[in-house]
Write a structure and sequence with these properties.
The structure holds 3 protein chains of 3 kinds.
Chain A: E1 3-6, E2 10-13, E3 18-22, H1 36-43, E4 52-58, E5 66-72, E6 78-83
Antiparallel strand pairs in A: 1-2, 3-4, 4-5, 5-6
Chain B: E1 14-23, E2 26-32, H1 36-42, E3 49-50, E4 57-58, E5 71-76, E6 79-85, E7 95-99, H2 113-116, H3 125-128, H4 136-148, E8 163-175, H5 179-190, E9 195-198, E10 214-215, E11 218-219, H6 220-233, E12 237-240, E13 243-249, E14 253-259, E15 274-286, E16 290-292, E17 305-307, H7 308-318, E18 326-330, H8 334-344, E19 350-353, H9 361-368, E20 372-375, E21 377-383, E22 390-395, E23 407-410, E24 413-417, E25 420-422, H10 425-429, E26 435-437, E27 442-444, E28 452-454, H11 464-483, E29 494-495, E30 519-521, E31 526-527, H12 528-536, H13 542-549, H14 562-573, H15 577-580, E32 592-593, H16 594-598, H17 615-620, E33 623-628, E34 631-637, H18 644-657, E35 660-663, E36 668-673, H19 677-684, E37 697-703, E38 709-719, E39 722-727, H20 732-746, E40 753-756, E41 761-767, H21 771-778, E42 794-799, E43 802-807, E44 816-822, H22 826-837, E45 843-844, H23 847-857, H24 895-898, E46 904-910, E47 922-924, E48 937-945, E49 950-957, E50 967-972, E51 977-984
Parallel strand pairs in B: 1-7, 8-9, 8-15, 9-12, 15-28, 17-24, 18-19, 18-24, 19-20, 35-45
Antiparallel strand pairs in B: 1-2, 3-4, 5-6, 5-7, 10-11, 10-29, 13-14, 14-15, 16-25, 21-22, 22-23, 26-27, 30-31, 33-34, 35-41, 36-39, 36-40, 37-38, 38-39, 41-44, 42-43, 43-44, 46-49, 46-51, 47-48, 47-50, 48-49, 50-51
Helix pairs in contact in B: 5-6, 5-11, 7-8, 8-9, 12-13, 12-14, 18-23
Chain C: H1 6-14, E1 35-38, H2 42-55, E2 60-63, E3 79-80, H3 87-101, H4 103-107, E4 118-122, H5 125-140, E5 146-149, H6 150-156, E6 172-176, E7 180-181, H7 184-197, E8 201-203, E9 208-214, E10 217-223, E11 226-229, E12 232-235, H8 241-247, E13 254-264, E14 274-276, E15 282-286, E16 292-302, H9 310-323, E17 331-343, E18 349-352, E19 358-362, H10 368-385, H11 399-402
Parallel strand pairs in C: 1-2, 1-12, 2-8, 4-14, 12-19
Antiparallel strand pairs in C: 3-7, 4-6, 5-6, 9-10, 10-11, 13-16, 13-17, 14-15, 15-16, 18-19
Helix pairs in contact in C: 2-7, 2-10, 3-10
The chains are: A mainly beta, B alpha+beta, C alpha/beta.
Chain lengths: ~90, ~1000, ~425
């Protein structure tokens, strides 16, 4: 069971969270002209690589905040967690 | 029967408490503290079962968790348990057990015919045959094989036992209470760390219980006892026996199974049978010891052949002799320790040592005791069928290739020692890349992956002094990091005998002209010849070998066979062992009861049950409930002997003619507040929201980003910056997360907050032409006229002193209202509605009538919004704003979504106006067309229209827009039905929607 | 090639089994091939076999990073079925069922195909209706399906929970009597042996490190054992698709997730069907060895770790006990994980790509094993003819852009919950 540090609540077990997918995917701005390809890249296409993966989790049974987690998809090591609004360098 | 093989004294059993038990129907006696295995051996019983494939006789090989074959069917408290290891099962009064995998009895087993056919049954034989004739595999061969396979028997009765879970956090979890576990636990505990020390056996001490050592002027087991007693007194220490740490999961989560009641005749009241501990540890010390490796020779599976360490354990812990004429066959000094124990108890063992001329203190001691030792000697084969009677032995050349003349010597057991294999399972499970250590010819943990440290024999350290020293230090250092205390423990004086180098030799060559089976995996009957065949046929990777031969795949998971298998592959393939590699260790270390893994969430409690505040009223009024997700909802209220069909028709009809009330508490409710709430809704829903006035409700549809409809519902503007959203029962949780996602991640600039209020409100839908009249009675102080509360209007009102919200919305298509009060007042509201509704002939209605009402109105629900439909398909495209952007809009231009013959919702009426249309049927043009028959659409929902008194269905139909008036066939091959139908509008009743506005 | 039969088995027994041939050779890669299949799993091996058998293309190499059959073909719960609602999946799978029925004879390797029937349990009328929709669709597509009521289910699997103490009572079920199981390893080995005998080079321990693409055309691949020239490359690496796609600068509608499975200790036969739970995600069958083979949900987050986590397993087994309470008395013996290509609509991709000569076979989600023969057959066709077959036309890569989705579950793009 993963141990995830919620940036708002502290260390919590995985079963308090729900997963939300690739956090590097940015939703295109509303009303902006974009190509079909750009839209498909947002809706469907994922890199999903082995190794470091920035992803979303929601602290569902806690503060209900969406957070970003940097995790290794091969070892599940968690390098860092961030608040939703935090910019990640 | 007397315990002929029990020593007069000695052992750690309680000789004051004699226990009776039955094995294969025969009564025996043992003592408290025995295992079933030790008690049987004490009674001279060595034949306990039959092997998987050849049904060869099987006895005891080990004395604990490593046991590959002594498995029995256990009977305890009117229940039976298959495949219980006799070496682990503690004896209790009245225990009953039987042999498994034999018929009619373990002594005379028909299946043993396989033993004579064994030359035809090499590894993988089943892949090469049973192919003709074609249908025979499933019909003839497979049923026969299935019957022969499988060890014990499981009864399909429900399990009456209870299993618990416990969640723990600690500074140090220590797995194993041998010397390294005790020393590290002691040092860490003295430093104030919170320690959990787990031992899978009933007794603490591990190898200290059986080894002839001295620590600080105490014997090994006395020292262990004193440490354990002290640890038990410390408040920061939890000491658990009968507890196996079986899994090392991510982020230092370890799971331990505690056998709370298995050693008792029955589980005590309120006690669990087993308890699963989820332990999150800061540091993990793996002190799981090592398992002795077998030596491989002919018929080495004969009962009476066992690990020398097991023989020693039976002697020292249980006071039991595994034989009175023992032969010890060893490639290292450990066999000598066993032989010395025999000798000390008046038994004369013979030692065969494969080594040329080893020298050590232990060997000297054996020589001094007068034990007969033959160097450069090996056992070629055990003789005897159900029990060892003698051994064929021979001298072996120094290069281990040539055998001398075969001699036969009498013996009644053969104790083998092929040196030691560290138990690295937990370390490997943690992700540790293990490494091969040449000096001990075994794998040991490499660099720590998580916070695990492996100590003592598990780390390949086989001397006590070094083990204790490193363990004291590890315990101190790791705890110091956590507690900042620094209490030094000084190493007590350790007296142990030094061992000499083991022999790199495990498999005795086959003598000319002989054809013995030399077993590697005892339970699965995998022999050296099987490995040879696999390699010969090109199954070269160790994974291929394992899968082709089933080596290491039995219930012992290869604890005693894997390394010998690897050794053999490396010898034949001429590769070093690390190049062969080993298969991955995965939890569980030893089989764990599924009941324990699951815990308390069984039966009615497998998922939570949600009930509305009015649940007991429904129950008291003959409601028949239906599961709606985890909610229970009244499906209908049964009157007399009514069927579901009759009751729902009555209830729906009453809504259409009078007035009905339906519990709608389960609908998801979300409070949305903030100055940007309207803008937010405008982005979430497909239609426009910026101009919704306060006190008005609006129906909305939300999409997923891929353009598929996600959910629908009404949202009401309660006040300037406050909205009340409703969702479907099924999607409530998803919609809330969805909203939070956009607010927190995508549009954090919007000043909006959302919170679920589903539990805060009880809801009642009042529907029917007389509903306004009822409302006037319910809210005498409020004006509920059509003018004051028009369709899609909202007001706050006073229900006899209780604050209520009235929404004029309708799912039934009738004039209807939804009244919400605080959950606590739900019953009050409901009872008031029932009471005052009497004069209007009000009846409660359930979900079935609710369905009927919505279907004939053409309102969509979950069966249409099934995660595959877009707004157009469900005729909700009118709610798509062209002016603004919203979630999912960009997807709507996809080719398939805009094609001219896109599917669309329609109504379906049978031509005969009588035949009910089964839901889940499909629409076709030609009912007699050959298969595959092209499907044009499917029936999503069906009802009996109470308005027109004939069947009516909704369907999602290809090119539905242009199909109105067409005649098609509804086909339900499952129900053998073909129904000619006409396609009509989905708005079957009140197509102009006049009633809701009346 | 040696024929496998009872006669040969007996004959070899008398020569101590010393005369068996290699099931497949272990050649070094040649300089050039007509077709290179990347991935020595079930699908790759089947593709090579059908290339040779159906299209007479035998200058073929299978490039496998580890050892053949080590991926999902050896890590599944061996279920074979064609009980799909959507035509694309149904017709494809049913075509595969016919290949399964003849596979042991076709390959001269007993893959132990055992049509023991699969039952999907339903726990509400709504679910019965959803199953009816699927079952009727199957029947109209010429696939066998039977809708069972509660009593009929009880007759077939009385050990399921028909008691009062049940959270979601069994209403009935949808059964496909011709569905079943097969011995997974044997499928890989059987295809390998035949492909090898027809001249296919099975190259193990050979990692693909790059692709040689010029002017939109594939010219070869780079591997840890040297460069290989070829005009046609078939990518058949479900579980690692994203990793190889990156080397091709492709981003696919696929996420990589872990699916766990487990077996109980072996017991005497009690369950002779494949059964799935309807109020959750759990499936079970009893192997010929007596082990209960069980599986359910994904671990729930992108993963390349072939090791699972306990909460998922606990959740899956909880549903198992909810369905068949006696399971709590069994012991869990072994667990393992397989890495899945989870596509964004739950259905696979077998298609050409924008690179000439590069063909894609991926996105199998949970359903890869059962699809092995049909996937190999259609992929071989697609590669050999350079055009898709009717059977895999629906499994196009561009269906996500066009909206022609094949979403059996209606869960959309949240692959981790599908």
């Amino acid at each position: 069971m993963l141990h995830i540090k919620c940036p708002h609540c502290g260390m919590r077990s995985q079963n308090e969270f729900s997963y939300g997918g690739d956090a590097s995917v940015k939703r295109p701005e509303l009303n902006k002209e974009i190509t079909d390809e750009e839209w498909d890249n947002f809706v469907y296409n994922r890199k999903s690589l082995r190794g470091k993966h920035l992803e979303l989790w929601q602290h569902l049974s806690g503060c209900r905040q969406w957070i970003k987690v940097e995790r290794d998809t091969a070892t599940h090591e968690i390098f860092n967690t961030y608040k939703a609004e935090e910019e990640i360098s | 029967m007397s315990q002929n093989f029990r020593l007069e004294n000695g052992g750690l059993i309680n000789r004051n408490k004699k226990l009776s038990f039955k094995f294969n129907g025969k009564k025996y006696f043992g003592y408290e503290g025995d295992t079933l295995a030790s008690a049987l051996i004490a009674n001279g019983v060595h034949l306990v079962g039959r092997s998987f494939k050849y049904h060869r006789p099987r006895g005891f090989f080990g004395a604990g968790v490593d046991e590959p074959y002594a498995m029995v069917q256990l009977y305890r408290n009117n229940e039976t348990e298959p495949n219980v290891k006799a070496t682990e099962q503690e004896l209790f009064e009245g225990l009953e057990a039987k042999s498994v995998n034999c018929w009619p009895s373990v002594n005379f087993d028909i299946g043993a015919i396989n033993n004579f056919l064994k030359i035809f049954l090499p590894a993988g034989f089943y892949y090469k045959t049973f192919m003709w004739p074609k249908s025979f595999w499933y019909r003839v061969y497979e049923p026969f094989i299935r019957k022969a396979a499988g060890l014990g028997v499981v009864s399909t009765k429900h399990d009456k036992e209870r299993y618990e879970h416990k969640y723990e956090y600690c500074d140090l979890l220590i797995a194993g209470s041998g010397p390294s576990g005790l020393a590290s636990a002691y040092a860490a505990a003295k430093n104030g760390a919170r320690v959990i020390l787990a031992e899978d056996k009933p007794r603490f001490g591990g190898s200290l219980l059986t080894s002839d050592v001295n620590i600080g002027n105490q014997s090994g087991d006395d020292w262990a006892n004193s440490i354990i007693s002290e640890l038990k007194q410390m408040p920061n220490v939890v000491v658990k026996n009968r507890s196996q740490v079986f899994g090392y999961y991510d982020h230092n989560m370890l799971v331990m199974s505690e056998k709370v009641s298995d050693h008792l005749p029955k589980t005590k009241k309120y006690h669990p049978k087993q308890r699963l501990w989820y332990i999150r540890a800061k540091e993990v010390l793996i002190s799981s010891g090592s398992i002795e490796r077998p030596l491989v020779f002919g018929n080495n599976d004969t009962p009476g052949v066992m690990l020398s360490s097991a023989a020693k354990e039976y002697l020292k812990v249980y006071g039991v002799l595994v034989g009175k004429n023992p032969l010890v066959f060893t490639n290292n000094d450990s066999g000598y320790e066993t032989a010395i124990e025999f000798k000390k108890n008046g038994i004369n063992p013979i030692i065969l040592d494969s080594r040329v001329n080893p020298k050590s203190e232990i060997i000297d001691e054996a020589i001094n005791l007068g034990i007969k030792i033959q160097f450069s000697y090996v056992v070629i084969a055990a003789q005897g069928y159900k029990k060892v009677r003698s051994a064929d032995i021979a001298k072996i050349s120094d290069d281990k290739k040539k055998l001398g003349a075969i001699e036969n010597i009498k013996c009644d057991c053969i104790c083998v020692s092929g040196f030691w294999t560290p138990t690295i399972h937990l370390a490997s499970q943690s992700g540790n890349k293990t490494k091969f250590k040449e000096e001990i010819d075994a794998f040991v943990p490499g660099k720590s992956k998580q916070n695990e440290t492996t100590l003592g024999a598990a780390n390949g350290v086989f001397t006590l002094e070094e083990t204790l020293q490193s363990s004291f230090i590890a315990g101190q250092d790791l705890s110091k990091k956590i507690t900042n205390n620094d209490n030094k423990i000084s190493l007590p004086n350790v007296v142990e005998k030094k061992s000499s180098q083991h022999d790199k030799f495990w498999c005795v060559p086959m003598p000319e002209g002989k054809n013995y089976k030399r077993f590697l995996d005892f339970q699965n009957d995998v022999a050296v010849s099987d490995i040879e065949i696999a390699l010969k046929e090109g199954y070269r990777s160790i994974e291929h070998v394992k899968r082709y031969t089933t080596l290491g795949m039995a219930t012992d998971q290869g604890k005693t066979s894997n390394l010998n298998g690897l050794q053999l592959v490396s010898d034949i393939e001429n590769k070093v062992i690390p190049a062969v590699g080993h298969t991955t260790f995965r939890p569980p270390y030893t089989p764990i009861s599924i009941g324990a893994i699951v815990g308390r969430e069984v039966g009615k409690h497998s998922k939570p049950t949600r009930k509305s505040p009015m649940h007991s009223w429904h129950k008291n009024n003959n409601a028949v409930f239906v599961d709606a997700g985890v909610w229970l909802r009244p499906r209908y209220y049964k009157q007399g002997k009514e069927t579901l069909f009759e009751a729902s028709k009555r209830e729906a009809k009453n809504v259409r003619t009078n007035v009905g009330v339906c519990d709608v508490t389960t609908l998801g409710k979300i409070d949305i507040k903030g100055p940007d709430a309207a803008e937010f809704l405008n982005r979430v829903y497909t239609n426009a929201w910026l101009k919704l006035p306060v006190g008005k409700a609006r129906y909305g549809v939300m999409l997923r980003e891929d353009g598929i409809v996600m959910d629908d519902g009404t949202t009401t503007r309660i006040s300037e910056n406050h909205y009340h959203m409703t969702t479907t029962t099924a999607q409530a949780a998803n919609v809330l997360s969805h909203l939070e996602y956009y607010l927190q991640l995508v549009w954090p600039e919007l000043n909006v907050n959302v919170v679920s209020t589903t539990e805060q409100w009880a809801g009642a839908a009042i529907a029917g032409p007389k509903s306004r009249k009822l409302l006037e009675k319910l809210f005498p102080y409020n004006d509920v006229s059509n003018e004051a509360l028009p369709f899609m209007g909202y007001m706050e009102a006073d229900l006899f002193g209780v604050k209520a919200r009235i929404f004029r919305i309708s799912f039934s298509g009738e004039l209807a209202y939804e009244v919400n009060v605080k959950s606590d007042n739900g019953n009050f509201m409901w009872e008031k509605i029932i009471e005052l509704g009497q004069e209007f002939e009000l009846q409660p209605y359930g979900t079935e009538a609710l369905s009927t009402l919505r279907i004939e109105m053409g309102h969509v629900a979950g069966s249409e919004l099934d995660g595959r439909t877009i707004s157009y398909d469900t005729s909700l495209e009118g709610l798509i704003s062209k002016k603004k952007d919203f979630i999912g809009k960009r997807s709507l231009n996809r080719e398939a979504f805009t094609s001219s013959d896109r599917q669309k919702i329609v109504g379906v009426v049978p031509l005969d106006k009588k035949t009910s249309i089964p839901e889940g049927s499909h629409l076709v043009k030609d009912a007699k067309a050959p298969l595959p028959n092209k499907k044009l659409g499917h029936i999503s929902a069906s009802c009996w229209s109470v308005e027109y008194d004939n069947p009516f269905s909704l369907a999602i139909l290809k090119d539905g827009k242009n199909m109105i008036g067409e005649k098609l066939f509804v086909m339900s091959p499952l129900k053998n039905k073909v129904i000619p139908v006409e396609i009509v509008s989905s708005h079957y009743v009140d197509p102009k929607g006049e009633r809701v506005r009346s | 090639m040696q024929k496998y039969s009872i006669f040969n088995l007996v004959k070899n027994a008398f020569s101590n089994h010393e005369n068996w041939d290699l099931a497949w050779k272990d050649p070094a890669p040649k300089e050039e091939y007509d077709v290179v299949i990347i991935g020595g799993g079930g699908h790759g091996l089947a593709t090579a076999y059908y290339l040779a058998k159906e299209h007479n293309i035998t200058k073929v190499a299978i490039i496998e990073k580890g050892w053949i059959g080590g991926g999902n073909v050896g890590r599944n719960t061996t279920i074979i079925r064609s009980n799909y609602m959507h035509d694309e999946n149904a017709l494809f799978s049913e075509f595969g069922m016919n290949l399964w029925r003849n596979m042991s004879q076709d390959l001269n390797y007993n893959v132990m195909f055992s049509p023991r029937g699969i039952i999907n349990l339903a726990h509400s009328d709504a679910q019965m209706n959803a199953y009816a929709r699927r079952g009727n669709s199957m029947r109209l597509n010429g696939i066998d399906a039977v809708l069972l009521n509660r009593e009929q289910v009880k007759e077939i699997i009385p050990m399921a929970d028909f008691s009062e103490n049940v959270r979601f009572p069994i209403f009935g079920g949808l059964m496909q009597p011709s569905a079943g199981t097969a011995r997974h390893d044997a499928v890989a080995w059987g295809y390998a042996r035949q492909a090898d005998s027809m001249g296919v080079d099975i190259i193990q321990n050979c990692e693909v490190t790059g692709f040689d693409v010029t002017a939109g055309k594939i010219n070869g691949i780079r591997t840890s054992r040297g460069n290989i020239k070829t005009k046609k490359v078939g990518l058949c690496v479900a579980g690692s698709t994203n990793i190889l796609a990156e080397k091709l600068n492709m981003t696919l509608p696929i996420e990589t997730h872990l699916l766990q499975a487990c077996v109980s200790e072996p017991v005497k036969p009690v369950l002779d069907r494949v059964v799935t739970f309807g109020a959750g995600h759990f499936y079970i069958s009893q192997s010929d060895k007596g082990e209960m083979v069980m599986g359910g949900d994904l671990d729930g987050y992108n993963s390349y770790a072939q090791r699972g986590n306990l909460p998922t397993l606990q959740h899956v087994l909880k549903e198992g006990i909810a369905m068949m309470p006696f399971l709590s008395k069994l012991k869990m013996l072994r667990t393992w994980g397989g890495i899945m290509d989870m596509s964004m609509d739950g259905s696979p991709i077998i298609d050409k790509t924008h690179i000439d000569g590069l063909y894609l076979n991926c996105g199998w989600c949970y359903g890869g094993f059962k699809a092995t023969p049909a996937s190999g057959w259609t992929f071989a066709h697609t590669i050999a003819q350079d055009r898709v077959h009717d059977l895999n036309a629906g499994f196009s890569l561009n269906r996500f852009s066009t909206g022609h989705l094949i979403d059996e579950k209606g869960l959309g793009t949240k692959t981790w919950i599908s």
